[in-house]
Amino acid sequence: MTTDEFRRNRDNFCYRHPDRQSFVLCQRCLRTICPECQTQAAVGVICPECLRDQQKAQTPAQAKAERRWRRGPRAVTATDSRPLVTYVIIAVTAVVYVTQLIPGFSTADLLAFNSFFVYPSPALPFEPWRLLTVLLVHGSWLHLAFNMLALWMIGRSLEPLLGRWRFLTLYLLSGLGGSVAVALLAPGTTVVGASGAIFGLFGALLVIGRHIGANITSIAIVIGINLAISFLPLLLGGGTQVSWQAHIGGLVVGALVGLIYARTRTLARRRMQVLLLVATGVVLVALLALPPVIYG
Fold it and tell me: 45 is in which domain, residue-wise?
């Protein structure tokens, strides 16, 4: 789908705010709604009109149950456009880093990724969860600060556009892509950090921005600068502590997931979207079978 086609398709814009793009549909009428128009319901988010229709059709018992729901701590208002997944990821990552500072508590040793942990052997335990837990541990407070700042800056725009579950899926698949790239290109190397997932967000933002007609020049410049920083120490011949493999892997997978989201926007393609996301994860895991063959 080209940019012009995307702009002409009103299904890509909130029906109440035609200037606002969104990937989220009302679960009752299936119209596109922006974060301001979303109200959390038992079946997902619904639009204001469907909310009013639902309230009119309620029995007294149902109305009483809904009032209890809205008074509870889980209530979400129609204007709740906060990037909650972004905030949760930042909070959890920060807490994990605090545990790294506790003397004698080797959090990094338990969660860092090394490709040796995904291949059963007598020498090391089989711990495949490290493919994703690596996103939670960092080498220094500066490393943590840069990654979480980037996540906060991107998440505030991208999460409301995609919806919370799509954003979380993007983040995790990008992180997985970074770990798989490390296993393929630098087997036996121990890495830490969420950089692969962050680069995945950059890649998705670049692709989605292109499809919605946004100015992506600044995004491309930021990606180029970060990639240059990744490769500069290596090019200078002094070695590097930056995992450029994770950056490249996350960027490629993030761009792929962004393309999937952009091309499967309509309800008719929703099942295809899920299948493509699952297929992406399966292919990434399958690629882990290559290092033993390549490197013996």
Answer: 3-71
If asked whether residues 163 and 242 sit together in one domain, one would say yes
The question of whether 195 is a catalytic residue gets the answer: yes
User: Can you list the alpha helix ranges (DSSP code H) found in 163-215?
Assistant: 164-185, 195-211
Q: Is 76 part of a structural domain of the chain? A: no
- From 115, 174, 195, 243, the catalytic residue: 195
Kindly list the distances between the CA atom of residue 109 and the CA atoms of 100, 125, 134, 136, in Å, as whole numbers in the listed order: 9, 13, 10, 12
Clarify whether residues 88 and 208 are in a common domain: yes
* CA atoms within 13 Å, Cβ hemisphere of 46: 13
Three-state DSSP at 45 gives strand
The verdict on whether 247 is a catalytic residue reads yes
Most confident of 111-115, 216-220, 234-238: 111-115
* Residue of 232, 151, 158 whose CA lies nearest to 195: 151
Residue 269 CA neighbour count, 13 Å, CB half: 12
State pLDDT tens for residues 61-88: 655 555 554 454 444 444 456 789 999 9
Q: How far apart are CA 70 and CA 48, in angstroms?
A: 15
- 122: domain CATH number? 1.20.1540.10
Q: Into how many domains does the chain fold? A: 2
pTM: 0.75
Residues 109 and 44 in one domain: no
Query: For residues 257 and 135, what is the distance between their CA atoms, to the nearest angstrom?
Result: 18
| Residues 127 and 215 occupy one common structural domain | yes
My answer on whether 58 and 148 are in the same domain is no
Report d(CA 27, CA 276) in Å as an integer: 21
Whether residues 95 and 117 share a domain: the answer is yes
